[in-house]
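note to self: dont lose this again. the chain is below, predicted strucutre after it. 188 aa total, dont forget to put it in the shared folder this time
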Amino acid sequence: MISSNSGHERGVFAVYPYRSACPQSVWARLIAEAWSEIFLAGYTNYFLWLEQPALPRTLRRKAEAGCRVRVLLGDPGSETTSRRERIEDAALTVSARIRITLAHLAELADTDGVEARFSALDDGPNHIGLSVFRFDEHALVTPHLARTVGHDSPMMHIRRSEEDGMFDRFAEHVEELWSRGTAIRAAA
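---
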């Protein structure tokens, strides 16, 4: 018998067959408890603004208290976005979901400690296939399945339990995407 607390899997805190199966209270708790880092690296991040009450105000308070807040988005005009829109064939398009996030980010444009970038065009395929939402030493990770929208893809709640473990691997992935991203201007 293998212990669930041994080896690399000890970094896996919870798994959900669908991102939408993760209670909103988990997201709220992770956002509330983060004190040094919030990194929202979903391709659209759209659902967060709808599901988390007063998220712009919360992120502003976090940033003012010294928490680094970063948002990485896909470029709404990119070929990766257009391709995904054709694949999903959803009424609420990927570019529309990104623009909703941009409208909420505009509320935070004058807030020190809040940064936003579009992933580099060459990184679009790497970004759209994997969403990573980091809250200090915890992360919610969604690998996107073929034709599903984000809420229908599985999600893992992981926490940093060892150096170079799962948490660090996903954190390094989005840090690399961030490093090549381009700043989003307030007028975006």
